[in-house]
Amino acid sequence: MALLEANGLTKRFGGLVANENVTIKIEKGTITAVIGPNGAGKTTFFNMITGFYVPDEGEILLNGKSIKGLRPDQIAGNGITRTFQNIRLFKEMTALENVMVGVHSRLKAGILGILFNTKRVREEEERARVEAYKLLEYVGIEHIANEAAGSLPYGLQRRLEIARALATNPHIILLDEPAAGMNPRETIEITDFIRKLKNELDLTIILIEHDMKLVMGLSEYIHVLDYGKKIAEGTPEEIRSNPRVIEAYLGKSATEAS
Fold this sequence. Notes:
Blueprint: E1 4-13, E2 16-26, E3 31-35, H1 42-49, E4 57-62, E5 65-66, H2 72-77, E6 80-82, H3 95-104, H4 111-116, H5 119-138, H6 154-166, E7 172-176, H7 184-201, E8 204-208, H8 212-218, E9 221-226, E10 229-234, H9 236-240, H10 243-250, H11 252-257
Parallel strand pairs: 3-8, 3-9, 6-7, 7-8
Antiparallel strand pairs: 1-2, 1-4, 4-5, 9-10
C-alpha cells in the first residue's frame, strides 16, 4: 500500500478543468517530483492534497484511509504539511514566533486556560518556544530568531517557512517550488537540505519545481502534468527521454526535429 494515494482527482473552476483524472501514488520515504509547464495544474493538485480545495471527483487516501474533504488543519493533524510557491510568513512577527505558530497547532491548552494564563499554558508556551528555537537551529537560521520575518533575505525566508512546516511534526511535506528565486549557490544548498530532511527526519517529500537540474538530481520518481492531465511518470532517466514530456516543455517541433 502506498503511503499517499490520489486516485482520479478532478477539479473544475467553472469551465476550466485544472486537474482531470489525476492518479499519483507516493511511497513512504521517497522524494517525488510533480513537474509540468506553467498552468499544468501542479499547485491545484497540492491544494487538493492539503485540503485547500475539495476534489470534484476522485479520492485521496493516507495509509489507506480517506482524507478527502478534511480541513487544512485536520490534514496537518494527520501528518501532511506544505510550503507555498509564494512564501506565506507572518511578516511582522519574528522568525521564532513564526515557527511557534506551527508548534501551537499541536498544543493541548483550551480557551479557558489561555484566557486565564494558567500554569499549564505558560509551561506549554515555554516548551513551544524551546522547540521552535531548536527547529531554527536545525535549518541553520537560529541567528535571526528575533528578526522580523519580512526583513529576511529570500533564501532565509524559504528556510523559515520549512522550519514552520516541520513544527507540525509531519510525515509528508509538500514543497511548492522550494528553489524559486534562488541563485545557484542557494539552489545547491536547498537541494542538500531537502535530501537531509528525508534522510535524517524520515520524511516523505513531494515537490513542485521548475529547476530541472534540481529535479533530476534529487527526485527518485517523477510525475508529469500538462493541461491538468498526467502525461507521464517514471524515474528521472525515463522522464528525461520521454517524447511526450519533451513535447510538453519544448513543443511538438522539438520532438519532430529529433
